[in-house]
Design goal:
Keywords: Membrane, Transmembrane, Transmembrane helix. This protein is mainly α. It has one domain. Helix content is 57%, strand content 0%. Helix 1 runs antiparallel to helix 2. The longest helix is centred in the last third of the chain and has 30 residues.
Length: 103
């Protein structure tokens, strides 16, 4: 099969539309992720007992740890859902005359 120099296979796939909704979801996921990391940091600092002014009861610390993990899991699930919705079905966009059967 002869390949032409100006052919680009990426032109067969449809370009994803970037909407404001996907950008807002991305920003929300980023904020959830950073909030979860902040909660995990506060909880581990409180559990380690490095500073006495940050220490909190064990129940509060464990609840902060659990909340941080839940925020990160929610961010991951929301990101996966948004990417699957953005990608669509992944079919090639071929012109109808290219899909014609010969024979």
């Amino acid at each position: 099969m002869k390949l032409s120099g100006d052919f680009d296979a990426r032109c067969l796939r449809s370009r994803p539309r970037r909407s404001w909704r996907s950008r807002m979801v991305g920003l929300f996921v980023l904020l959830l992720w950073l909030g979860g990391l902040a909660l995990l940091g506060v909880a581990t600092t409180s559990l380690s007992g490095v500073r006495s002014d940050v220490s909190a009861p064990v129940g509060v610390t464990l609840s902060l740890l659990l909340a941080g993990v839940l925020l990160i899991v929610c961010a991951l699930l929301l990101r996966r859902r948004a990417r699957r919705r953005q990608q669509g079905n992944g079919d090639l966009c071929l012109a109808p005359h290219l899909m014609r059967r010969h024979g």
